[in-house]
Prior knowledge:
By secondary structure, the chain is mainly alpha-helical. The chain has 7 helices and no strands. Helix 2 crosses helix 3. It is globular, with a radius of gyration of 17 Å. Mean pLDDT is about 80; it is low at about 105-110.
Amino acid sequence: MVNFLDIADYRDFLKAYYERRKKEMPLFSYRMMGEKLGLDASYLFRVLQKKQHLPSHAIPMAKELLGLSGRAAEYFDILVASAQTKDTKKKAELAEQAVALRDVERKSIGESELRFLSEW
């Protein structure tokens, strides 16, 4: 599974999911994945090739398909908004929000550090 902090474009989430499913089940196709997202196979192919964006009605279904929730779902939404906006100022704001979500993960205290602090 791809860590959401390693993704810079929301379409990479979808592509990683497709590739993983294709390895698990060789008959998995763009048509099968497209049906789950309410898209036809050719449109999904163009999305995965980063030539088009997901339509707004497919975004909640994509998050459900990918099993994203919490911070990962919020990060996905920010990436979608960033990819779809043309305004450079808005893109910069969204990039800052994405970095802030990444930093929360980096600054979190691990289980070993917590055990050490409680023993100390």
